Amino acid sequence: MHFEKIFHALEELDSYDKIWTRHAKDPSYAQLFAHFTKPAFKYNPDEIHSALFWMASLIMDFVNYYNDYFITHKEGTCKWYTDFWRKASFKWDVFNFNYDTTIENSIDNFNDGYVDVEDHANIQRFDPNRLMQSKTNTINHIHGCILYGYGDFSIEEENRDLIFKYGFHDWFKWDNYELNKKHWIGRSSSSEVSQSGGTLFPSPIITGLNKTDKLLTLPFSTYRLNLSQRLFQSHALLIAGYSFGDYYVNYELERMRLYHGDKLRVVLIDYWDLQNYRDMSDQDKIHAYLEFGEIDGISHQKACFIEKVIHSSQLDYYKNGFKKLTHKNYMISDNKQLMLFVGGWKNALQYRDKIYEFLCS
Fold first, then answer.
1. Secondary structure of the chain in the HEC alphabet?
2. Is the pLDDT of residue 263 over 90?
3. How far is CA 145 from CA 63, 180, 182, 188, 245, in A?
4. How would you label 225-253 residue by residue, b for 16+ Cβ within 10 Å and e otherwise?
5. 323, pLDDT greater than 50
6. Which of 60, 173, 188, 210 fits as disulfide partner to 124, beta carbons 3.0 to 4.6 Å?
């Protein structure tokens, strides 16, 4: 049971609880089906919000642990990763679906849309215009970040200016995680509500199964807009470690061939468990995976995307998709539009210059 599913179950339970124990009368603030059913188990309604808060906090703490490790070692044991982002000759538009700050800590010049707040040294507010008009690298934390949190402003400051620019659930950005956590712990905020009446727990990291509904606040709504715009404008795409579990993203990615035709270039860095095929050659392992889909790590959504990029149906993978193994550690599709790595991120970045060259071809 993945943590996102547990998080979703708790949000759904809170949605139903509005009818079951809190007897909400307004149908727009509760799941309508709750009127037609009753709970089949005992639970403490007061603990639902606490459990959601605890889960979000635990995830943020865990991400901060490896994030701090990276910042400390980015010029040492993590330099292979730092150099990949730093040494590219082109501009990056990064859409990070994790919650860390490793990429912005790898490059010297980036724009994430956040700007300083007058008379507040350690916090920034989001300016959509700054991001959308950027001519430099952009960092888009479309699913949130461990630095996002609540503001720390007086009522006078909010009423004078901020209340007319931002919504109640829009997120500010702190200089470091410890400052953010200090304002996150102990802060209580009412949950948002989806149009169908479901609970959307307010969190600076987006998790659960209702991500699309949670992208309506800032900065997430602007990051999603930027994702659509950049995919339309750029024919070159690098995907690393994405599970293809977010449908709204998958639909965007599958339009890339429509947008760019034969100019499309995709580098897909993934990890496939090839242990069951260890007696085969590297090329035959990948062919077996593509033909039979027996190796852990692929999904129907991922397969659909690969089909569109290589311009070949699943049944034709073996004979038309990848006839030649370009190198023992990666493959390039016959149509020269997909560079595929299946040995993980660190293995792929041994071929940093090859990746740059392919994206710019």
1. CCHHHHHHHHHHHHHHHHHHCCCCCCHHHCCHHHHHCCCCCCCCCHHHHHHHHHHHHHHHHHHHHHHHHHHHHCCCCCHHHHHHHHCCCCCCEEECCCCCCCCCCCCCCEECCEEEECCEEEEEEECHHHHHCCCCEEEECCCECCCEECCCCCHHHHHHCHHHCCCCCCCEEECCHHHHHHHHCCCCCCCEECCCCCEECCCCECCCCCHHHHCCCCCHHHHHHHHHHHHHHCCEEEEECCCCCCHHHHHHHCCHHHHHHHHCEEEEECECCCHHHCCCCHHHHHHHHHHHCCCCCCCHHHHHHHHHHHCCCHHHHHHHHCCCCCECCEEECCCCCEEEECECHHHHHHHHHHHHHHHCC
2. yes
3. 9, 11, 15, 19, 19
4. ebbeebbeebbbbbbeebebebeebbebb
5. no
6. 173
Residues, the chain: 361
Contact yes or no for 99/205 (Cβ under 8 A): yes
| CA-wise closest residue to 70 among 96, 97, 104, 95 | 104
Is the CB of residue 172 less than 8 Å from the CB of residue 123?
yes
Average pLDDT, integer, range 212-235 = 96
Q: Whole-angstrom Cα distance, residue 1 to residue 100? A: 23
Task: Return the sign of the alpha-carbon dihedral for residues 311, 313, 319, 324.
Answer: positive
- For 161, the token pair is 């200016």
Q: What's the sign of the alpha-carbon dihedral 266, 269, 271, 272?
A: positive
Q: How far is CA 47 from the centre of its chain?
A: 28
Tell whether pTM > 0.85: yes
Which pLDDT belongs to residue 226?
A: 97
> Is residue 257 pLDDT above 90, yes or no?
yes
| Structure confidence by residue, pLDDT tens digits, 41-98 | 999 998 999 999 999 999 999 999 999 999 999 999 999 999 999 999 999 999 999 9
